[in-house]
Amino acid sequence: MSAGDAALSVSWRRSGRTKSVIIACALLLAAAGVASLAIGPVVIAPGNVTSILWQGAFGAQAPVSSDLRDVVVVLDIRLPRTVMAALVGATLAVAGAVLQGVFRNPLADPGLVGISPGAALAAVAWIVFGGWTGGYVPALIANHALPLASFAGSLIAIVLLHRLATQDGRTSVANLLFAGIALGALANAGTGLFIFVASDQQLREFTFWTLGSLGGATWQRIGLILPFALVLVGGSFWIARALDALALGEAEAFHTGVNVERVKRIAIVIVAAGVGAAVAVSGIIGFVGLVVPHLLRLSIGPSHKSLFLGSALLGAALLTASDIFARTVASPAELPIGVVTAFIGAPFFIWLLQRHKRSFG
Amino acid sequence: MYRAENIRVTAGAKVILDDVFLSLAPRKVVAIVGPNGAGKSTLLKVLAGERRYGHGTVTLDGAPLQHWDPAALARKRAVLPQSVVVAFPFFASEIVALGIPPYLARTEAARLVERALREVDMLSAREQSYDTLSGGERQRIQLARVLVQLWANGGQGYLLLDEPTASLDLPHKIATLRIAREHANAGGGVLAILHDINLALMVADELVAMRAGRVTAKGAPKDIVTSDLIHALYGVRAEIGAVPSGPFLLPQSIRG
Amino acid sequence: MKNRYPRIIFFAALMAAATFSASAGAWTITDASGRKIEIADVSQIVTVGGAVTEIVYALGFGDRVVAADITSSYPGEVKGKPSVGYMRALSPEGVLALAPRIVLAIEGSGPPDAIEVLSRASVPLVIVPEGHDEGSVLKKIRFIAQALGVPGKGEAIAKQVAEDFAALSIMRAKIGARRSAVFVLAVGNGTPTVAGDRTSADGVFELAGVDNAIKGMNGFKPATPEATLAAAPQAVITMVERNHGLGPDVIFALPAFAGTPAAREKRLVSIPSYFLTFGPRTAHAAQKLAASIYPELSLPQLPPRPWTEAETAAKR
Lengths: 361, 256, 316
Hints:
- The structure holds 3 protein chains of 3 kinds.
- By secondary structure, chain A is mostly helical.
- Chain A has one domain: ABC transporter involved in vitamin B12 uptake, BtuC (Orthogonal Bundle), CATH 1.10.3470.
- Chain A is built from 16 helices and 2 strands.
- A two-stranded antiparallel sheet of chain A has the order 1-2.
- Chain B has helices at 40-48, 70-76, 92-97, 106-119, 135-151, 170-185, 197-203, 221-224, 227-234, and strands at 2-11, 14-24, 29-33, 55-60, 63-64, 77-80, 158-162, 189-193, 206-211, 214-219, 240-243, 246-249.
- Chains in contact: A-B, A-C.
- At the A-C interface, α4, α6, α7, α9 and α15 of A face β10, α8 and α10 of C.
């Protein structure tokens, strides 16, 4: 039992609503998942999709004679892609919610604290100079070099950030923010330098990477992100109660028995792991971490335990749905998924701003 | 038993607390009075375990404060800050529930939250967003949270209150002092920073008068509150009167 | 013989140039940006764009090239000359510092501001029309020859190149069932960036008798893996310079290609970047591409030309 539950039970107005919103998010995810398996540039009858999945799951012979190509499309492309969209979406949304809790600010975002800029710098460095390594890098590593580089970039950024913001064993959230902005600016400058020496093709590759894509979804990559996503989501539930208390302020959270320094450390580590892995497999996808927790806070309140559960479900649903759009609307070309999420996210924020303006007269 | 000995706190070259001795026993209400900048809040923070001190020792039940881990400390003492800004739109009842430790059963937690809300006369506002409440209402919600924290751990322990009555209306000031008194009567200890001398005189078993980071007087209110003490603390002259129940200060008698 | 050939051209050109400057003094040309440009002196040339540089060398003006951009890597000796940087990131001062008498830049050179500044400088800037078919190659040769004041020489080379294209079209006629291919510019994070319509890759495919598997998309864009798979390409083409050491085992493991006929037949061809520059070697490039896509047809090679052998000549 946690304070989250206690808070729910003492607020009868919210507890019922939270349950129904969580259920709605789960249903939305299920619907997005089904649609993502059924819809794509290759037209496959829903019956065929079902039988192919059945076949893939149980090794049974498909009752309908399906084309080998359809089997490949459903099992090797759509299924891993749907799973990865859900994992990345859940990871980004929960990471946003955790960061917002730690920073006590609903606008905190992995981009703000230098994680994504660090990943971007490493990615562009690989894109521009990776070719020089030529045949010396084993093919297996070369194939995953971009994800590995960006993962390393985000980890280095977070370690530097933590070092800069910590003094005498205490991490100041304000310093964390300043250091994050400074590191981000530095990383962006480095990225700019690489862009300057990059060729058109490299530039194009980097630009598409910064806008995100789930096109590289394979079971291998799902294996890469899964442990980090689990660490993030599991860790977030572990510190949910502490983050609730942290809303009162750091001193006040300490008064209620929270080991504030430890919670901040855990939060930074799990967010870096989750975001680093997500950026590694899918590039930079904005707005999910900002919009999803915000939307949920409006409907079920700020209590972190239910916020994390809802964010995981709604983030997964949102990214899965966005990806359907990204891969079908301009087929055979693929719209960068970051463009889709920004088109959904930015107007939503403008709407929020308008609403706020009105409420403050 | 809280015991602070020879506490010295500095910030750069500035000495904020110096040579401070203080003890807080169960069943006692200790009030700290003194002008702005006397170091009262800093002393409270030192006792809360929140503020580091360069010199001296603070023990709680015999063990140095730095040996207590945050969770164990939270079972022994609760702290009411001057004002709390909450980052997200929690409901009033949810704020109160933040005082509940993780191991408490859900029904018991709900019962305690409701009792505390009733105690501070905020039951009707339980489903309101904390940031829509007035300053006084917020302070009462925070008091409820602090009470719940100690109740959930046996109902004793120490209450450290930083100006608990600052933005309250008269009836709620009296009610807050009554709550503090009842907590002491039930076996807990209370340390409260109070600006209103009369309220301090009303509730305190012991008065600690501070000025410029030092304790200038300490003892039973009726023994130490004199016109001279008021002058030493605040630089104003006032007459101390006494009606049957005890001494009091007449604000209208203040001369500059 | 091969050694001496360019030198003869050079002397001929030198004499021709001398004749022109003596008699006419100056000539005018309308470039790809529509400006009328007066040219009097071609003694020092800056070339921008691989095709432009190759044509200038083929015309025998190689010794007058004072600098070229980094996409100009042929003939080999151009690599020893000063570089003006990447063709889309030119710096006006950097170009003019080399004291050229004329700047020949392929259409699409940039950035636009730099082109604007250069076009207003006292040194003539001539924009060479770009295109990705047989006609554009001939047009580029004739245009550059005209800009350098040697239209006759240009006509002679254009005639030979046209013969190569004619031979290529006879070769194409031998291809019965055309194969389809996808050109992969980069693999990035798993989403391949491929060539659609109106690209240089599409142009060379056409010349090689290969169908572009990617339809309904213009330019180089990341293609959704499912659509790439659905296009069922029979070959995958990558660039030698840009594959990050990716071999068939890696390319064909990507979901976009795993189930394609190309993967089943392990048909992956790496082409050097000049296959896409549409200079005088284009017909030869298209023949090489066709030969590797249709190995069973043993397609005949095109006759060597001075401008296709310059590399070996330079190495000797």
